[in-house]
Amino acid sequence: MQQDKYLKKGALTLSVSVIIGFLVDYAFNLSLSRTLTTHEYGDYKVAYAYATICGVLVLLGGDRVAPKVLARPLASKSAREVGGFVAFFSKIAFALSLAVFLFTYLSGYLHVGSWSVNDHHALLWISAAIPLIALGAILSRVLQSAKMLVHANLPWRIVLPLAKTVVILILAAVLEQVHLWHIIGAGIVILAMITSWQLKVLQNNDLLTFSYITPVSNQPQLLATSIPMMLAMLVTIAISQLDLYMLELLALEHEVGHYAGAATTAHMIPVAQVSVIALFVPLLGQALEKGEEHAEHILWQGQKIMLATVLVLSCGLFMSGSHLLQLFGEDFFSANDALHYLILGSCFWAVTAFISTWLQYTGKGKYVVIIGILTLCTDGLLNWLLIPTYGITGAAISTCVALFLASLLTWAAFLSTKKHALKSHSIRSG
């Protein structure tokens, strides 16, 4: 009964988060693309992708492992134990964020690659946001694990893009010219406000305290569990962002902005995918404590909702995608074919993402990492072959093929582990 009540409430939160969140995020990207030049818009998306990847890297999987590790402490409201967990990964994140910032600065100072501190300062500015992105990610995971989905999702899905949109409109009205550093600086301030609010919510609900924390026991074992989860997530993000980097390298400057418009439009499917998984992960973490057989019911329940959600959204985007693209500007219609391939690729992966999570939570994360690396290499190779000839459409085809491969391999790994588990069970029974 309690689980059904949670799922109904969570489904409502999911709907609001996905639909309204997508519309608000789309409004932000529209305001950004119309305030900046196509080239600058592309630079922002590249910088944002960089910060996203680094935000995952510096946490070493602390956010990914949180639902599994914190199921018991949150159920018993052991605020000191939760505080010890958050403090442990936060310290790691801040130390690694400093290293990333220094690396970014030195890369620009030494003119590594095609950018310098003066010419492409967006990367350097956005590096300052990485520790806040990491802290926000782990606090959101703690809130999700505590089944406080509204507090975990809506600030990032709705409040953040809405606030950034308002800031862009104000800056455009006040300033003669809006620069990237204005937008990034304002985003950092908003990140700090949301993160502080989430921290306060956890403390007010007696779910987290930093006073007399309980230190994390067996830290090497915890990192041995979290790092493979981080690597799997990192590879997944890298696959979605690799196209932007390779387009920056191999295509015309304005094509990066056009591709970013298509990727933003297709992004509604990954947002729905993440939201569905967030709805079921707290239940999965609790159920796995009773055994994999008990948890499979949660897995297949989540898969049904995921499939239905993805089919509805994909049909809607196929029908309305070209119109959404033209909101960015008439020249963005050139990304229409790329959009179709990105939607298809997102579908392939969305119906597999929960299976990937299952493999990680049941100790088979190595399969996910290997599959991710193979997929990333496939995407990179195809980008190198197709972008020079087909431009952004070639990049989208590469992603679609790579995600299809990832889907096939992930299902194969899942079925193989299930077959092995059944065989082992038969031997023990015999």
TrEMBL record:
Going by the UniProt record, its keywords in alphabetical order are: Cell membrane, Membrane, Transmembrane, Transmembrane helix
Membrane-spanning parts: 12-32, 44-62, 82-110, 122-142, 154-174, 180-199, 220-239, 259-284, 305-326, 338-355, 367-386, 392-415
**Record-linked InterPro entries:** Poly_Biosynth_Transport, Polysacc_synth
Q: What is its main location?
A: membrane
| Protein localization | Cell membrane
Q: Topology in the membrane?
A: Multi-pass membrane protein
A GO CC annotation recorded here is: plasma membrane
Which PANTHER family does the protein's record reference? O-ANTIGEN TRANSPORTER-RELATED, PST FAMILY PREDICTED COLANIC ACID TRANSPORTER
The protein's name in its UniProt record? Uncharacterized protein
Q: Which organism is it from?
A: Pseudoalteromonas rubra
Give the classification, highest ranks.
Bacteria, Pseudomonadati, Pseudomonadota, Gammaproteobacteria, Alteromonadales
